[in-house]
Amino acid sequence: MPDALQFLPLSPHQFHILLALTEGERHGYAIIQDIAERTGGQMRLGTGTLYTAIGRLVELALIADTGREDERRRFYKLLPLGRAVLKAETARLETLVRYAYASGVKPAPSVPRRS
């Protein structure tokens, strides 16, 4: 398997798409809804942006089209390499946040935080 670190950094769109697929197979519209819900509406992907990012993630073998279709919707799944890349990116971002906190930078009160 390729080294997950070679895929970093992910774009925010790629990160959120991989994160949406951690809970199982989803079609594009379900991915859009998951991202909007998780970000409190701060990130809303259009279909063009979503499918461009999905195409790139498929090309990189981080996700795959399951071949299953339901009412013309294609379903995608997270591949093992995609999960490894998501974990590596999460660790990278966590390190950046720790550095920011250590420098006295704290999140603004208006930024929604999920527990």
Features:
alpha+beta, Arc Repressor Mutant, subunit A, single chain, three-stranded antiparallel β-sheet, 115 residues
Describe the structure.
Helix content is 49%, strand content 14%. It has 4 helices and 3 strands. It has a single domain, classed as Arc Repressor Mutant, subunit A (Orthogonal Bundle), CATH 1.10.10.10. By secondary structure, the protein is α+β, with helices and mostly antiparallel strands. The mean pLDDT is 93. The protein has helices at residues 12-20, 28-38, 47-59, 80-102; strands at 26-27, 63-70, 73-78.
> How large is the count of helical segments?
4
Mean pLDDT: 93
List how many beta strands DSSP finds: 3
Strand order of the largest sheet: 1-3-2
Uncertain ranges: none
Largest sheet, in brief, is: 3 strands, antiparallel
* Number of domain units: 1
Q: Which CATH top level class fits?
A: Mainly Alpha
Q: Report the end-to-end length measured between terminal Cα atoms.
A: 32 Å
Proportion in β-strands:
5-15%
- Radius of gyration, rounded? 15 Å
CATH homology superfamily name = Winged helix-like DNA-binding domain superfamily/Winged helix DNA-binding domain
Class inferred from helices and paired strands: alpha+beta
Reading the helices and strands in chain order gives HEHHEEH
